[in-house]
Structures are given as structure tokens and as C-alpha cells.
Design a protein that fits this description.
- This protein is mainly beta and 174 residues long.
- It contains one helix and 13 strands; from the N terminus they run E-E-H-E-E-E-E-E-E-E-E-E-E-E.
- The strands form four sheets. A five-stranded antiparallel β-sheet has the order 3-2-5-6-10. The protein has a three-stranded mixed β-sheet with strand order 4-1-7, with no helix packed on it.
- The longest helix is centred in the N-terminal third of the chain and has 8 residues.
- 27% of the residues are buried.
């Protein structure tokens, strides 16, 4: 199977310096159990990440174990992170995701406080682009599902991924 595409800026020009990765893992235990009835456990290693050159292109060729699901992640130091997800990838197909438009990105930072305004540490903060409950297609790369951070002793957190400008939905846990 081949998974390929091209990173471009908002004007459609090729974008160098995008770090692109493919991750695979068991889709669910039922799919894996069915697979193991007739096959050995897949010997899977994520393909090495790639950094786009002047033409902005990336291409991964690999055998996608049938009981696995996959993600494509695209990051750039000044651009909003993008990602795509597939519940499975058929063996032997070419999946061209086309141009991945890398919008300018922002780093989300903040502080977690309690009702009295006191800093709270060790809280996981998840920042989701878009509005709560918004349905998104993930077959083609879209802004990453969330950026997350963990509050420090002063309650401060910084999200790990750059996000596009716009509305956000914030949740906490931990």
C-alpha cells in the first residue's frame, strides 16, 4: 500500500520542512482475534517519519496489517498540525491524500485555576479546534483532533501541537 501527498502553503506553493509520520495499531480486539485464528500476530513497525523537501511531497510504501487502523500526521514548526485516520487500509492500494494545506498555527497556552482562583497542577487539558460536537471527516488530512498539555505547579499548560485559528472547545481531566 502506498500513502502519499504533498504539503503546500495556503497559496498552493510546495512547503518544505513538514514532518510526516504514519502510525498503525490494532483496530480492536475482535478484529485482531479473528486475524489470529489463521495468521501470526503482525510484525508491525511504523515507517520512519519523513521531512518534506522543496517539492513538499511525501510517500510511504508499507504492508498494512488487516486488523490495524492507521493515522497520518503532518507537522511544521509554524503551521497548524494536520492528520488523517483510516479504520483500515486495503493491501495494494494507492491512497493519495492530495495537497495538505498547512495553515498558520497558534500554540495554545493557559492556566488552570480552581473556583477561588488558585492554580491547580497535574490537570490534563485538551483543546479541540472547532465547535463542540462538530462532525469531521478524517479520510483527508484535517486539523489535528486536539492539542493537549498538563498543568504545572503554577497551573500553566502549553498544548503540544499548533492549531488553526478559530473557535476551540476545551476539556480537562486528570
Amino acid at each position: 500500500t502506498t500513502l502519499r501527498g504533498r504539503c503546500v502553503d495556503p497559496q498552493g506553493q510546495p512547503l518544505a520542512g513538514c514532518v510526516v509520520s504514519v502510525d498503525g495499531w490494532t483496530g480492536n480486539s475482535e478484529r485482531m482475534d479473528r486475524w489470529l485464528l489463521e495468521h501470526a500476530e503482525p510484525d508491525w513497525k511504523d515507517p520512519p517519519e519523513q521531512t518534506t523537501g522543496a517539492d513538499g511531497t511525501f510517500s510511504f510504501a508499507f504492508w498494512p496489517p488487516p486488523p490495524f487502523q492507521f493515522t497520518l500526521e503532518v507537522e511544521h514548526p509554524q503551521r497548524a498540525a494536520m492528520g488523517a485516520r483510516w479504520g483500515e487500509l486495503p493491501v495494494g492500494v494507492v491512497r493519495d491524500v492530495g495537497d495538505v494545506v498547512m495553515q498558520p498555527g497558534i500554540k495554545v497556552q493557559g492556566q488552570v485555576v480552581d473556583e477561588s482562583g488558585q492554580a491547580v497542577e497535574k490537570v490534563d487539558v485538551y483543546v479541540h479546534p472547532g465547535l463542540q460536537g462538530e462532525r469531521r471527516s478524517e479520510e483527508k488530512p484535517v486539523p489535528v483532533w486536539s492539542s493537549q498539555g498538563r498543568s504545572d505547579a503554577a497551573g500553566r499548560f502549553t498544548g503540544h501541537a499548533l492549531l488553526p485559528e478559530g473557535p476551540f472547545h476545551v476539556t480537562t481531566g486528570g
